[in-house]
Structure formats: structure tokens, C-alpha cells
């Protein structure tokens, strides 16, 4: 069933009786060529591209809860490719290009909205760093515009430009950045994968891995044993738990990140604003709520809820940047669990166990990476070679000193 | 979340700085090889459940603490000063 304007008109005239379930609910088979563990954005995108782009068959996605029940529905929906380092920027730009064609590709309205993202600048040093970052972006085929103070003021005249500690001196704008309706990304990939023949198996938790002579044979699940030639794990947030079944320790700690939505307001912010110095970023959803967040809570957690000090810190950042936010009431706050890696960058790699592949360590930047993560993981699963934009995302980069540390913080996950 | 410092008593979480797993207290020998050092520096067990982590009481007495905590419920089960452990350097 393809979605189109004509289809909506036809269904409207015939009482909407033609809409059916968007994907099947199959029982697990005894064996597959590929099992993807994790029915979130990355897992569903992996299955979608594996079936569609790499022409593989006999694929299952195993999800412990319902599809899209993890971080793909718990983020602040921002897409961008404003990275600096060679190991990262080509990958994220590849992802942004995939976002640009995504809705046509999987025939689903994900509300990809390239409304622009501004990183604010407060000092000469920050302007130098933003200039360097902008140049790195342009060299990798992305877009970047360096704004002066008046350039930012023309976009957002109500920001607090003369804050005593962090006066706004300019901004680095990526016009192609923006926001996406996050749940629809999971649904679009799920529908696309299902149409391509992938079995999406929900309420199916992986409880063990059958490994013999250094090779994976299949996974034990809450719905019985399922054999597989290759198993790809894409469960960021729960990576430690799942990979423990394979006896692996990871260069990852799980941390909780909170996000917030205000009550619905009239249109105020048409893009995304990040105030890195004040640990605050904000956009406005199509429903009118201000969507904002700040730093991770700072300690390892699997609780999917945070603590009050970070709420206070984020609120202070918001008040410093845009005092008008003080009049808005907070509607919702929630926490998601991040795979915080040791250098702030992800991993898409084979494991020492033959047939077992890993995708994780996305820190709090996983949502924007969803299309490229799925594509590159599918590439690795199908061809056993890394995609050209993901060659740096290796497990052994820590052992070999080839870290991709955008912030230069060292091996301390809570600082990235 | 509140932590009980053995010296200062029950204190707000904001007085403390989290610094990762207590595994890092156990260092391999200098010549133990790359794999052992990689394991200590970069790899984590990262359990969903009871964990032991290092916290620094930076706005208090300056003690390094080993905090036993449940990562799923945020319950604090025990706190202990690293300096009070057997074999700790004085």
C-alpha cells in the first residue's frame, strides 16, 4: 500500500475503510540469515537498507518491547552534520543527505524540516573554532555560514545578546540542519522493511547468545531460540546488557539524558538554537511546544529518568539565553539512556565473535545518525567491509590510539 | 539523589563528582601489555543493576569515595572512603 494524496482523497470518500495495519505481526521462524537485535531507529533502518539496498533476504528484527520504544522516541529530534573531525564529518553529512531523500525513499511522511541550526558564539576563541568547524564542514560537502552578531539578531531578535557572562557575538549556521518527526522515522523504516519482507518481531527479548567455537549460531529469546548466520546488535542504551550475553565488555558507559517540552506556544523559534556555553539547546515543535535540553546527568544509569539538579541547570541556561522562556510552563520532562562511549563517537564494527556485529556508542547524537547508521551497518553485515564513511568507527581505535574525540575530553564518558 | 559521605554525612548529589567505575583503582603492572591497559582504561562492565563507582566529594571534604549504587533504581547501597580500604596508600 503506497501513501499518496490521491489515496487520502479516495479513502476520505469511502469512509476510510481501506486502511489496514501498516506492518505484519509475524511469529519468529526457526532460522534467519540476518537477525537485527533492536527495533529502534537504527535497527529498523539497518533492516530496511539490508533488504532494499543490499538485496538480502531472510531478515528479522527482534524488539524486546514495541517498535520505536527506545531512544528514537525519546530524543529532541534534531538533525545536523556540523562535526569537525575527518572520522565523523563525512559520515554525518552522508546521513544528512539520506535524510533529505528519506521520505520519498520510504514513502512515509517523517516531517523532515530543514529549518536551520545555529551554534552560538560568545568569544573570539569560539569564533575561531566555529570558523574552523565551518570550513571542515564545507570541505566535506556540507553547508555552513558564519554569522556575526547582527546576523543572529536578524534571526532571533529576542535572544539575550548582552548577557554579562556569555554575550552573543555570532553563530555558526547550518541551514540544512533541522528537525524530524522522530516516531515517524521508526514507523517509516518499519513499514519499509516489512514491505521488503523483513519479519518485525516484537515483545521478543534476547536473553542469551549461542556461541560455539568463536562463532555465533543464534540467539535465545523470550519467544524461543532463533538461529542466524549473522547477528547485528543495534540497541544503543542497552548495549552493555545485550553484549554481556556474548561475554563482551564495551568502551561504553550508560548515562541518562533528560529532555523537556513546554506548553504549546505561538510560533517563536523557527529553527534550532544551541547555547553550548550554557548547556542549553532549544527548538519549537510543530505543535508549538518548546523542545529543549542540556547536559547528561553525569553518572551511569539505566533508569530512564533523571534528577532535579540537571532540570535546574537546563532552566538556568534557558533563562540566560532567552529570558522570555521564564513565562512558559514546563509540560513534560523525560530521560533516555545513552551509550556514552570513551571518545564521544560511535562504533559500527565486527566483534571478535564471528557472525556477531555491533552498532552502538551513539552518545546523545544517535537520532541524526539514524539513516547513515542503518546504511553503514547494513553495508558491514552484507559485505563484511565497512562503508567508506564509517571506517573509523572501530572497536580497536582505543587500543591503537585512534580516538575520534570531537571535544578533546579524553576517556571519560560523562564529559563528552 | 543524595550520597552519604563517611566524613561529612548525608549530602546533596551536587557536592560530588562522578568519575567512573571503581575498576580503575586496580591498575595493571606497567609492563602488563597493551591489552591489559586497554581493558583498564577503556572497557567497562557497565551493569544494569548494582555497580561500584568512584565519586569525588569536591564541595566537601575532598575524599574519594567508592559508592555502591543500583543503576536501575538510583538507590545508594553503601559508601566507603577509598582511603579507608585495606591496602590503600596512606
UniProtKB/TrEMBL annotation, chain A:
Main location: cytoplasm
Gene Ontology terms: biological process: tetrahydrofolate metabolic process
SUPFAM superfamilies reported in the protein's UniProt record: FAD-linked reductases, C-terminal domain, FAD/NAD(P)-binding domain
Molecular function, one GO term: nucleotide binding
GO cellular component, one term: cytoplasm
Domain FAD dependent oxidoreductase: 33-380
Keyword Ribosomal protein attributed: no
Superkingdom of origin organism: Bacteria
InterPro entries, per database record: FAD-dep_OxRdtase, FAD/NAD-bd_sf, SoxB
UniProtKB keywords: Cytoplasm, Nucleotide-binding, Oxidoreductase
Subcellular location: Cytoplasm
PANTHER family membership: FAD-DEPENDENT OXIDOREDUCTASE DOMAIN-CONTAINING PROTEIN 1 (PTHR13847:SF287), SARCOSINE DEHYDROGENASE-RELATED (PTHR13847)
Official protein name in the record: Sarcosine oxidase subunit beta family protein
Native source species: Stagnihabitans tardus
UniProtKB/TrEMBL annotation, chain B:
Gene3D superfamilies, sorted: Folate-binding superfamily (3.30.2270.10)
Organism of origin: Stagnihabitans tardus
A GO biological process held by the record: tetrahydrofolate metabolic process
Pfam families tied to this protein: SoxD
Recorded GO MF terms: sarcosine oxidase activity
Protein name: Sarcosine oxidase subunit delta
Amino acid at each position: 500500500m503506497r501513501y499518496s494524496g490521491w489515496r487520502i482523497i479516495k479513502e476520505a470518500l469511502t469512509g476510510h475503510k481501506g486502511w489496514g495495519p501498516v506492518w505484519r505481526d509475524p511469529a519468529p521462524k526457526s532460522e534467519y540469515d540476518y537477525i537485527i537485535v533492536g527495533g529502534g531507529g537504527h535497527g529498523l533502518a539497518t533492516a530496511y537498507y539490508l533488504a532494499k539496498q543490499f538485496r538480502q533476504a531472510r531478515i528479522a528484527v527482534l524488539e524486546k518491547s514495541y517498535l520505536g520504544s527506545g531512544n528514537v522516541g525519546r530524543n529532541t529530534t534534531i538533525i545536523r552534520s556540523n562535526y569537525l573531525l575527518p572520522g565523523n564529518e563525512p559520515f554525518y553529512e552522508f546521513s544528512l543527505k539520506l535524510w533529505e531523500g528519506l521520505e520519498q525513499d520510504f514513502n512515509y511522511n517523517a516531517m523532515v524540516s530543514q529549518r536551520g541550526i545555529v551554534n552560538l558564539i560568545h568569544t573570539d576563541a569560539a569564533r575561531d573554532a566555529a570558523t574552523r568547524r565551518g570550513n571542515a564542514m564545507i570541505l566535506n560537502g556540507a553547508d555552513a555560514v558564519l554569522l556575526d552578531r547582527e546576523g543572529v539578531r536578524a534571526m532571533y531578535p529576542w535572544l539575550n545578546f548582552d548577557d554579562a557572562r556569555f554575550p552573543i557575538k555570532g553563530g555558526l549556521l547550518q541551514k540544512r540542519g533541522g528537525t524530524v518527526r522522530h516516531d515517524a522515522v521508526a514507523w517509516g523504516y518499519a513499514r519499509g522493511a516489512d514491505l521488503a519482507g523483513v519479519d518485525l518481531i516484537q515483545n521478543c527479548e534476547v536473553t542469551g547468545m549461542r556461541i560455539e567455537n568463536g562463532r555465533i549460531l543464534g540467539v535465545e529469546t523470550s519467544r524461543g531460540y532463533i538461529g542466524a548466520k549473522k547477528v547485528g546488535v543495534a540497541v544503543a542504551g542497552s548495549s552493555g546488557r545485550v553484549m554481556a550475553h556474548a561475554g563482551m565488555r564495551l568502551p561504553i558507559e550508560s548515562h541518562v539524558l533528560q529532555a523537556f517540552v513546554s506548553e504549546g506556544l505561538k510560533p517563536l523559534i523557527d529553527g534550532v538554537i544551541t547555547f553550548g556555553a550554557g548547556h542549553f539547546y532549544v527548538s519549537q515543535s510543530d505543535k508549538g511546544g518548546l523542545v529543549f535540553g542540556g547536559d547528561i546527568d553525569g553518572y551511569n544509569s539505566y533508569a530512564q529518568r533523571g534528577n532535579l539538579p540537571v532540570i535546574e541547570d537546563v532552566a538556568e541556561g534557558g533563562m540566560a539565553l532567552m529570558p522570555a522562556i521564564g513565562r512558559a510552563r514546563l509540560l513534560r520532562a523525560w530521560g533516555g539512556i545513552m551509550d556514552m562511549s570513551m571518545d564521544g563517537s560511535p562504533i559500527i564494527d565486527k566483534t571478535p565473535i564471528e557472525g556477531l556485529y555491533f552498532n552502538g556508542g551513539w552518545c546523545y547524537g544517535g537520532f541524526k545518525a539514524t539513516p547513515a547508521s542503518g546504511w553503514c551497518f547494513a553495508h558491514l553485515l552484507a559485505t563484511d567491509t565497512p562503508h567508506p564513511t564509517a571506517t573509523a568507527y572501530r572497536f580497536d581505535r582505543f587500543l591503537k590510539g585512534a580516538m575520534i574525540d570531537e571535544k578533546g575530553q579524553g576517556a571519560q564518558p560523562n564529559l563528552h | 539523589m543524595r550520597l552519604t559521605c563517611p566524613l561529612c554525612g548525608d549530602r546533596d548529589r551536587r557536592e560530588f563528582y562522578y568519575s567512573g567505575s571503581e575498576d580503575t583503582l586496580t591498575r595493571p603492572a606497567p609492563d602488563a601489555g597493551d591489552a591489559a591497559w586497554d581493558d583498564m582504561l577503556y572497557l567497562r562492565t557497565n551493569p544494569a543493576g548494582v555497580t561500584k563507582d568512584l565519586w569525588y566529594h569536591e564541595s566537601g571534604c575532598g575524599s574519594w569515595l567508592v559508592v555502591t549504587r543500583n543503576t536501575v533504581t538510583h538507590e545508594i547501597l553503601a559508601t566507603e572512603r577509598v582511603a579507608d580500604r585495606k591496602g590503600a596508600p596512606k
